[in-house]
Amino acid sequence: MSTIIGFSVIIISGILLSKTNLAIAYLICIVPIRMYTGGYHAKTYFKCNVVFGLLFLLNILMFQYIVENELEIQLCITTLLSFCIIERFAPVENENKKLTSRQKKKYKKISIVLFIIYYFISILFLSKQIEYGVIILLVLNTVSILILEVKINETNKIQSIKKNC
Q1: pLDDT tens-digit profile of 102-160?
Q2: Beta bridge partners of 97
Q3: Are 48 and 6 in contact (CB under 8 A)?
Q4: Model-level pTM?
Q5: What totals of helices (H) and strands (E) does the chain contain, helices first?
Q6: Any residues with CB less than 8 A from the CB of 147 and at least 6 apart, and which?
């Protein structure tokens, strides 16, 4: 049910912003890669849907800024940093979804393959002046930020434990 609500929030936002096609492209890209990379997970379904919706809106704002200022090449370059994050840290486990070592290896490979496929599709789109390439790159960056958020929180928890010992 929460997934349907989250998808509906994105589609309705896309319709209201006259960006329905971008909303669909966003969902097509973010859902598969997030399934395998993991990353930040909200504690409640409500918060999950709010964060999901806000991330989409932020991506639309960034999309408009990048397209208006012709920053596609810079986005391609910075997205390579996202590859480093995904390659190093994915998959990120969730306390509700523990992974076996076999699953971790499989999910890492799938995450990397999806990243590479999405990256080259985005480059192809951009080379043909198709703006969907920008939203694909923004999705890859968003996923890496969601991974980093978890890793930073894990580091902070470890440091907090060490201080208390």
Answers
A1: 999 999 999 999 999 999 999 999 999 999 999 999 999 999 999 999 888 887 767 76
A2: 94
A3: yes
A4: 0.91
A5: 6, 0
A6: 37, 38, 39, 40, 85, 86, 89, 90, 92
